[in-house]
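Structure tokens please, single chain.
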Amino acid sequence: MSSDLVKRFNELQGLDESKVPARYLAEQTCALKNRCALCKSRGFIFEVSGALTTVNLCSCVKSCTKCLGHASSTDASGISQPCKSPPLHVTLSHFNAAQIPAKYAQASLGTFTNFSGNGKDVVMFVRNWISHFKPRGIKGFILGGGVGVGKTHLLAGVIKALVLKGYSAAFVDFFQLLAQLREAYASDKSDASLIQPLMYTDLLVIDELGKGRNTEWELTILDQLVMGRYNENKTIIASTNYNLNEDVPLNQNLSLEEDSFSYGSFASQQYMPLARRVGPRIYSRLKEMCHFTQLNGKDMRGGS
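Here you go.
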């Protein structure tokens, strides 16, 4: 930037953007065209806020001489355009609404490392699925597999990939959703504020499908989510520790009540059919709506 231009920019610091001449703004260099080490020219950075991943504008955009931190700029003809597509404010809004767990702030398909089993093939399947995604009319998928194989990591990666394309998404830990609904009922609040956004988002991601005490109320909530998305022709993807094969023989020592066969017994869960956990009605819909995909590999928790 020329010294005269720098001087002019300094003179304009603090002024309302509408008072900055369009011809001056058109001469500036967009920060996203530079190589920012923080955001890698994406314009935003992932951060952790409590239990969730949050997304904020990168400092390079905030100090950008072209848009003055607004992530959109005015060209020489006076027309304002976003710095990138989809617009950064849309990307930030979708990411923050998705409620990705803080643990997966840096998760992506590219950072998945569990190739001790069929991880390479599953990642290839997921990438291909993302390339064909559309808000309606595409089958989702359910990832089955043992604890710690990376199912949730891949689900978080799917959300990030699709939000970067401009789609909205919602991540739901089913057990946490049930807890939030109980809190709402205890406070005499409607569950609509929790359920309705899950019906209309482009993609619904359910982690820990089948987890819970399998009560009639819990299955009603799951049925509401599945049938609501089914009727809207919208997509669900999910993870589960339960066996995806509906015909697997049930060990007679295992009960359908989760608290009866050890709440955290993942070794037991791999022998419990998902079909028996969620019931024939929900399972039938899920089979129609989703590909069933098994992710095999070693337990990576504690070591990655």
